[in-house]
Amino acid sequence: MKVRRIPLSRLPPGAIDRLVGDHFFASEAFAQLWRAKGGRPVVWAVVGDGPGGGAASRGGTPGPSGTAVLSGMPGPRGAAGPGGGAGPGDAAGPRGAAAAIVAIVPGVEFGRGPIARFASMPDGCYGGVFFAEGRDDGPAAALSAEHERLARMLLDAVARRRYLRAHLFDFYGTLPADPRFETFTCTTTLVDISDPRWDPPDKTLLAQIRKARREGIHVEPFDWSRHRDSFLQLMRATERRHGQRPRFSRRFFARLAALAQRDERVQWLWCEHDGHPAASHIYVLEHGVLQGWQIYFDKAFSFLKPNQYMRFTTCRAMLQRGIHWLNLGGTPENAPGLASYKRRWGGEVIRYPGYVRSCGPGRWL
């Protein structure tokens, strides 16, 4: 078995989705979004000697039957090195040859040559290793000897690529520690919303939700054609309030809105008041969990309590679809107010590892 770096564009459609199952952040659709920010979706893959069989899965959730198979995919000709042309680990082989993918690390590259960077996945979203033969979920689930061997092969290949910086966010506990990668701790909060009578435990929060209901605020699916300009205005104002430049471009959000129209795993909700944008919530369905991803809002309308109401009603709606967990997402260390707000929803704080390797100037950036 060998490890290959394979651009997503050179794989048959659906090949990766058969391996990642219902993990949206590792999906082809999510990876393709990052082209709007100059990203190049790739997978690092352990490739066997021939086609495999059985259910491709991870975390015990079966995917469609059949292991992903490569067939006749020679590597590009050209200069070696991170993010450009063929280099160590790039997919190469005789045309017509077929080989089964045994395990992958999906990700996105940014930049080229000595400034190429890699993330699995961008924006701190969950990546790590996906195995053709699944394993139990969660950071506490031990890797089998074979899965650990495959994971170490993939880590070694990523390390030898010498990206300026490589990040891996391992929520599902699929990677062993490696001395070449610095380990850091990530946190999130998981809330059990499986009870049909579920309410947040905080009484003040419940009162705010009731107030929003009395105010009669209207929440609807986001429509790019109608809400685009108002959303961009709201997004930029929110980022200014936080003292930062917008992280995502208009082109990125246009792609995300188009994806939301055809993929029910993306839930983008919109709230206006008297024709003015009040709040925008973007959730994704990640491995059977309602995952909070992006929220933008106008503090001038905080008296309406749109954020509280939108999250609560989304949880109730998703429960009808069989979603039993809410993931509130990560919290920056310098955001105590946000951390306090998340605690009001209850749940359990989950800690999981992230890994970063920096090379060259990346060590000081």
Secondary structure: elements and pairs:
Blueprint: E1 2-7, H1 15-20, H2 28-33, E2 40-47, E3 55-58, E4 61-65, E5 69-71, E6 98-110, E7 117-120, E8 130-131, H3 145-161, E9 165-169, E10 182-192, H4 203-215, E11 218-221, H5 224-241, H6 250-262, E12 266-273, E13 276-286, E14 289-297, H7 306-319, E15 325-327, H8 336-343, E16 348-358
Parallel strand pairs: 7-9, 14-15
Antiparallel strand pairs: 1-2, 2-6, 3-4, 5-6, 6-7, 6-8, 9-16, 10-15, 10-16, 11-12, 12-13, 13-14
Helix pairs in contact: 4-7
**H/E series:** EHHEEEEEEEHEEHEHHEEEHEHE
Distance separating the two termini? 35 Å
Gyration radius, rounded = 21 Å
Give unreliable regions as ranges: 52-66, 72-88, 92-97
Write down the overall mean pLDDT.
87
The helix count comes to: 8
- Strand proportion: 25-35%
Largest sheet: 14 strands, mixed
Oligomeric state as shown: single chain
Shape: globular
Overall strand count: 16
- Label the structural class: alpha+beta
Q: How helical, in percent, are the residues? A: 25-40%
Describe the 3D structure:
The protein has 365 residues and is of the alpha+beta class. The chain has eight helices and 16 strands. The protein has helices at residues 15-20, 28-33, 145-161, 203-215, 224-241, 250-262, 306-319, 336-343; strands at 2-7, 40-47, 55-58, 61-65, 69-71, 98-110, 117-120, 130-131, 165-169, 182-192, 218-221, 266-273, 276-286, 289-297, 325-327, 348-358. Strands 1, 2, 5, 6, 7, 8, 9, 10, 11, 12, 13, 14, 15 and 16 form a 14-stranded mixed sheet that branches. Strands 3-4 form a two-stranded antiparallel ribbon. Helix 7 links the parallel strand 14 and strand 15. The protein is globular, with a radius of gyration of 21 Å. The two termini are 35 Å apart.
